[in-house]
Amino acid sequence: FSIRSVLENHHCSSGFQLLLKFDLLKGLTPDELRRFRKVVVDIILATDLTYHVEFVSKMQVSTAQLKIATF
User: Fold this and answer.
1) Is the pTM of this model over 0.85?
2) What CA–CA distance (Å, rounded) separates 65 from 71?
3) What single-letter DSSP state applies at residue 4?
4) Alpha-carbon distance 13 to 62, whole Å?
5) Confidence check: pLDDT of 2 > 90
6) CA distance from start to end of the chain
7) Cβ atoms within 10 A of the Cβ of 45, count?
8) Is the predicted pLDDT of residue 71 greater than 70, yes or no?
9) What is the pLDDT of residues 59-70, one digit of tens each?
10) What contacts 45, CB < 8 A, 6 or more positions away?
11) Could you report the per-residue pLDDT of 15-48, keeping only the tens digit for each?
């Protein structure tokens, strides 16, 4: 149990329970499942306004770097 981002942790748990209940992740390899879970958890935790600004800043830097790399 984590006391950090309690509501967001609850949403992660509930979401993955539903995904598993309806077997929606059955086609993923263990590595794909691990990466999928990390991305989804990171995105949900980023909705905690305590960390939201930091997350958005990192995304802006990543997006800017991607644009430079592709042009």
Assistant:
1) no
2) 10
3) T
4) 27
5) no
6) 44
7) 19
8) no
9) 899 999 888 776
10) 5, 8, 9, 12, 51
11) 999 999 999 999 999 999 999 999 999 899 889 9
Residue by residue, DSSP assigns 6-56 as HHHHHHHHHHHHHHHHTTTTTTS-HHHHHHHHHHHHHHHHTTSHHHHHHHH
Query: Which three-class secondary structure state does DSSP give residue 58?
Result: helix
The token pair that represents 39 in the structure block: 């991305």
Q: Copy the structure tokens of residue 65.
A: 């770097």
Question: Long-range contact list for 5-12, CB < 8 A, 24+ apart?
Answer: 5/45, 5/48, 5/50, 5/51, 7/48, 8/44, 8/45, 8/47, 8/48, 9/45, 11/44, 12/40, 12/41, 12/44, 12/45
